[in-house]
Write a structure and sequence with these properties.
By secondary structure, the chain is an alpha+beta fold. The protein is built from 4 helices and 2 strands. The mean pLDDT is about 85.
Length: about 100
């Protein structure tokens, strides 16, 4: 499930994802996905996989994570502009 700047770009929230892909994956699939896409650790990261134990029971499977998770991920980004968007989204989301 896409998250962070990748999901924000897809939702038209004013960010360009560039060449970075951010996504949540079930932890048990990490090795499978890493091998399938030949992912390697790098200092110049262009893929960020956030492992979760099992989100399928609480989040419906979809191409993007819920907006609240996207906003939280954006608010923790090292880029100040991205953090600002995350904080703005968090302010607008009604729990």
């Amino acid at each position: 499930m896409l998250t962070g700047a990748t999901a924000a770009a897809e939702l038209g929230l004013g960010l360009l994802a560039g060449d970075v892909v951010e996504a949540y994956i079930e932890g048990g699939r990490f090795e499978e996905i890493s091998q399938e896409y030949h992912l390697q650790p790098s200092r110049e990261t262009n893929v960020v996989l956030r492992r979760v134990r099992d989100f399928a029971a609480t989040w419906p499977l979809a191409p993007k994570t819920p907006l609240l998770a996207i906003a939280l991920d954006l608010s923790e980004d090292p880029d100040p502009r991205v953090r600002e968007l995350g904080a703005s989204l968090l302010d607008r989301i009604d729990p």
